[in-house]
Amino acid sequence: MSKFLKIAASLAMLGGSAHAETFGLGREALPEEIAAWDVAVRPDGTGLPEGSGDVWTGEEIFVEQCAVCHGDFAEGLDNWPKLAGGEDTLDHADPVKTIGSYWPYLSTTWDYVNRSMPYGNAQTLEPDEVYAIVAYILYSNYLVEDDFVLSNETFSGVEMPNADGFFVDDRPETEYPKWTGEPCMENCKENVEVTMRAMVLDVTPAGEGGEAAASDTAAPADEVSAEPAEEAEVEVAAIDPELIAAGEKVFKKCKACHQVGDGAKNRVGPILNGIVGHPAGQVEGFKYSGALSGMADDGLIWDEDNLSAFLADPRGFMKGTKMSFAGLRKDDDLDAVIAYLSDFAE
Fold first, then answer.
1. What is the CA radius of gyration of the chain?
2. Which residues, including other chains, have CB under 8 Å from residue 244's CB and lie 6 or more apart?
3. Confidence grade of residue 345 (pLDDT, cut at 50, 70, 90)
4. Of 42, 121, 273, 331, which residue is most buried, by most CB within 10 angstroms?
5. Burial of 275: CB neighbours in 10 Å, binned 0-12, 13-18, 19+
6. By C-alpha distance, which of 86, 204, 106, 93 is closest to 148?
7. Spatial distance between the Cα atoms of 59 and 331, rounded to a whole number of angstroms
8. Taking Cα atoms as reference points, which of 267, 263, 275 lies closest to residue 234?
9. Where are the alpha helices (H) located in the chain, listed in sequence order?
10. Pick from 124, 113, 122, 104: nearest CA to 150
11. What's the rounded Cα separation, in Å, for the pair 168 and 58?
12. pTM of the model
């Protein structure tokens, strides 16, 4: 008898008849051990812990824990994933797959955040924090209102837009037979050449020296520069430099989507040079939402009162706006950022 068989026979005798086929190794998991690993959440909410979180609390936690990768408004930074947007793009050649446009079950979102986030510090969030973050993500996707509270009790009432967009995977029957068997290995190319750089395809975040390469494919500045319509000059009183400095800090919340100053370009949102005191919807080359275009046609002027009301509650001021920013809640921040924007002429 070989040495291996002798060891196997010995283990079998030690394990007894109940464990003979498994050599008597291991033991059944204890209930508390199973419970520690059994954290899966089902689409109907089964498995959720008790807890709750509202949109505004979620915004604060998201900015602190998630925004470094996903942006303040879940718009995604560099090549980190977008969590919001992408409506009606799934039939496009390059669909934008976000939680709002693609994910069929809210349980997947809650479970993933709970298990894997924040990046590099997974499983440090309390259930209430996870509920709040997911509530903010839903709000960023226009799926709930700003007073929504997500909890184990309200969870099943949330309907995801793409809940009916998935079907049973039939590839083993329909596709696998086409790609199995002996490879062809006929009429193969003698040489393989690289025809496109990853930087040009925008699949690699820009590193050292990368910005110059990326700029080769960027649209010329004059293609997106604003040419406002002729209008009367607006006199702006001298503004406190300290207030402008404070506004610059507040504007950091806006920089993911908007630019100001020399060389500013349209991004997710339009450039904001010369916005204060002027008619809405005047930046050439930017496609405004129907909501803003409608209010602009009705004569909306971005004076301090309207800007303050909009920035405090974008969706309350303008139903249907595409801007996902939740709003500034401090009057001092509103005054400061408007002062900062006033400092940028057309």
1. 28
2. 336, 339, 340, 343
3. confident
4. 273
5. buried
6. 106
7. 18
8. 275
9. 3-15, 31-37, 55-65, 67-70, 106-116, 127-140, 171-174, 198-201, 210-215, 221-224, 241-250, 290-297, 304-312, 314-317, 331-342
10. 113
11. 34
12. 0.51
Report how far residue 313's alpha carbon sits from residue 325's, in angstroms, rounded to the nearest whole number.
9
DSSP E strands in 23-106: the ranges are 52-54
Instruction: Give, rounded to a whole angstrom, the gap between the first and last alpha carbons of the chain.
Output: 91
Nearest residue to 284 (alpha-carbon basis) of 310, 266, 302: 266
Query: Mind listing the pLDDT tens digit for each residue in 6-48?
Result: 555 555 555 544 444 667 888 899 998 887 787 789 999 999 9
Are the C-beta atoms of residues 100 and 37 closer than 8 Å to each other?
no
DSSP-assigned letters across all residues of 105-123: -HHHHHHHHHHH-STTSTT
Using 50, 70 and 90 to split pLDDT, how confident is the model at 205?
A: low
List, for residues 287-319, the tens digit of each pLDDT value: 888 888 889 899 999 999 999 999 988 888 998
**At residue 268, does pLDDT exceed 90?**
no
237 exposure class (CB count in 10 Å sphere: 0-12, 13-18, 19+): exposed
Q: Would you say the C-alpha torsion 12, 16, 19, 20 has a positive or negative sign?
A: positive
Residues, the chain: 346
- Structural contact between residues 154 and 144, judged by C-beta atoms closer than 8 angstroms: no
Closest CA to 281 of 229, 345, 231: 229
User: Do the Cβ atoms of 147 and 159 come closer than 8 Å?
Assistant: no
What residues contact 112, with CB distance under 8 A and at least 6 apart?
none
Phi first, then psi, for residue 183 (nearest 5°) are -65, 150
